[in-house]
Amino acid sequence: MNEDPPPVVADAIAKSFGSRRALQDLSLRVARREIVGFVGPNGAGKSTLLRILTGLVPADAGRVAVFGIDPGRDEIAVRRRVSYLPGETNVYSQMTGQEYLDFATGFHRGTLPVPAAVQEAFEVPLSARVRTYSAGMKQKLALRAALTCDVDLFVLDEPDRALDASVRLALRRWIEHLRSELGRAVLLSSHHLAEVEALADRVAFVFNGRNVADEAVRAARETLRHEVRLRLEPGTDLPDGAERLADPPDGTVRVRVPDDPLRWLARLSSDRVLTAEVGPTRLEDVYAVLAESGATGNDVDPSATEALR
Amino acid sequence: MIAKKTWREVRGMGLAYLLILEMMLVPAILLYPELRRAGSALVEIMPADFLKKMMQQVFDPDSGTAFRAYMAVQMFFKGVNIVGIAAAVLMGTGMVARERENQTLEFLLARPISRSRILWGKFWPIALVVVVPVFLTSWSAIPISALEPVNEELPFAAVTICSLHNAAFCVLVLAVTTLCSVLARAQVHAAFWVGALVILQVALYFIQKIRVVSLFRLSDFEVYGPIMAGNDGFQSVFFGMTIWVLLATAVVYLLADRLFRRVAL
To answer: pTM for this one?
Structure first.
């Protein structure tokens, strides 16, 4: 098992759909017992790369190896070792929950138990038809089907879609369990930066189909460390020294402060502040700073995507 | 796994299809004595020469094989050709197009089996559901025809040969439907394309001068009438016609399979 090739080695992948370039020189590595977050805005090429890794879409150029196997040459051998949860997927509404689980896992070498700690959060009425499920229940079922396949790599595209906070927390525990207790590798794409950060050993940023250089991500996060998002009582004046940025559409106020954001916040009367967020908590803010700085590039070492731990 | 899933999806429709075939067949057999008495009037109202000739054989009072000709029309030319094709289209159009429409195709394609096996796992259970009722219904016609007041004999061999050929024709339609389902973005689109093709073939069939180019020439009274009359045996039917229908089915299916292997997500 120790001589097994790494779960994912993707170097300089390119993919176009007609005249549209989806991926350009994109690289990614996932090691054994590792959770890698794969983040980027919509249309950045995340799903395309995940489809290339699972052999669903061929790459135009570059080298892909999943456990040493080229998915373009032997997609079936790759899929025997990979459980893939597509981003825009649905479950068979005419089946019962149990029938769906049996169908989804039946192609693999076996099934893994649902960890006891998350069983309650992922409870769905397995004897009922899937058509009676809510969107959240369908996603829970799809996740149960994907995460109970006995495989070596889990590729999850937006796994937290339609899940409430408690189930997202349970999902985090389950993924952590797969890595820590069972030694499996996980590659997950998500829009929830906080959750990816809480879970992933590394995060790879992708922008316009390219890797984002580590330096650019670090610079963006450094910039965001001086940013504060506030929800204030109407008519509240901001203390001096802050640069007011374009107000987000969610009704909050976004400012950049020159020094420690907490010191600056302390100058605001606490009864005027309804909510306050400090630092790079929102993925869209990271994207915005990256976009402003034009930070896209392919000069990144794929094994050195931003280390979070 | 795929075949089991497909079977669960189509078994209800298959049962309904069998019942519809039977419900069309039983009254058609039991009404035959009365229809035969009114035969000459029915022949007169037939619009085309080939239909007139067909009905003359069916209601010929001096012919010993009139009932068999009647069954060739009722059971095969009319019954299976209409209901069998409808069943093939209803069940076949969803094969791939419904997976795409319901956003389950990517999940399905991500299973560790080849796309060819996925398509085959969907095709053969539907083909079986389309084919088996053709045999069951036509064989059931034998004891029903022996009942009073019909009291006619149907030869098992001829009925079986007709069923085999008609079933092969339905499978050809299913293969064409499969091809449309692979290409279509939604089940209704696939149904529209197959429906348009079937209507075109029916229209061609009813235009005397060009009906030879219609696909329905492969499955009409001129095929089933001589078999039921005992003039065409298994070898001449199978190697003269059925094998070509089966070959055409294989070609269309392999084309669908090739296209399915290239399906983009």
So the answer is: 0.83
Q: Between chain A and chain B, how many beta carbons pairs sit less than 8 Å apart?
A: 51
Residues of B whose CB is below 8 A from A108: 112
**CB of A228 within 8 A of CB of A276?**
yes
For residue A306, what pLDDT is reported? 46
Q: Does B111 touch chain A (CB under 8 A)?
A: yes
Pair A63, A11: CB distance under 8 Å:
yes
CB atoms A89 and B106 under 8 Å: yes
**Which residue of B5, B104, B109 is in closest CB contact with A56?**
B109
The residue segments making up the domain with residue A133 are 8-212+301-305
A54-68 residue pLDDT tens:
999 999 999 999 999
What is the predicted ipTM?
0.80
A195 and A243 together in one domain? no
Tell me whether B265 touches chain A (CB under 8 Å): yes
Number of domains present in the structure of chain A = 2
Q: Can you say whether the dihedral through the CA atoms of A246, A247, A250, A253 is positive or negative?
A: positive
Residues A137 and A234 in one domain: no
